[in-house]
Structures are given as C-alpha cells and as structure tokens.
Amino acid sequence: AWIATLEEGSTARRKMEGVPKYGEIVIDANHITMLANAFDAALSRQNPAQQAWSKTLLGMLHDIHQESAIYLMVRRLRD
C-alpha cells in the first residue's frame, strides 16, 4: 500500500516494486533524487504510518547524499 502511493508508472514506483517482486533492491547515490522527489510528492496521499516510513527513507536518502559510499539494501520480510 505504501508503494502504491507513488505515482503510477513512475521510475520510483517501478524501483520500489522490486522489493515484493524480487525480494530485495539496492538504493544508492544514483537513486537519491528520483526517490526523494517521488516520496516527497507522495506524502500528501499517505496515511500517518506511511508518512513516517517515507520520512525515515527520506532521512536515509539524505545520509547517502552526504556520503555517497553508503547504500541501502531493502529486503522483503519473509512470511
């Protein structure tokens, strides 16, 4: 549901849809602007829990921007 708040057909949404599809994705310096813009724009469509997740991710993207050697591995929880 959180990913569905991103603009349909956008590069950011396709990137994030890799988590449920493939089980994991890597977010690095190449993805910062795209994802930051998409999640910032989606905040107004999100419920409070989704907004908290987005703000956490935006903080992590800021950290990657500050130190481009950092990357983020996002993995799906196993049921």
Task: Give a short summary of the structure.
By secondary structure, the protein is mainly alpha-helical. The protein has 4 helices and 2 strands.
Attribute tags:
single chain; 79 residues; mainly alpha; 4 helices; globular
Commentary on this structure:
This protein has 79 residues and is mainly α. It is 52% helix and 10% strand. Strands 1-2 form a two-stranded antiparallel sheet. Helix 3 runs antiparallel to helix 4. The two termini are 17 Å apart. 16% of the residues are buried.
> Which class do the helix and strand fractions yield?
mainly alpha
Main beta-sheet annotation? 2 strands, antiparallel
What count of helical segments does DSSP give?
A: 4
Which strand order does the major sheet show? 1-2
| Residues in helix, % | 40-55%
Secondary structure layout:
Blueprint: H1 11-16, H2 18-22, E1 24-27, H3 32-42, H4 48-66, E2 72-75
Antiparallel strand pairs: 1-2
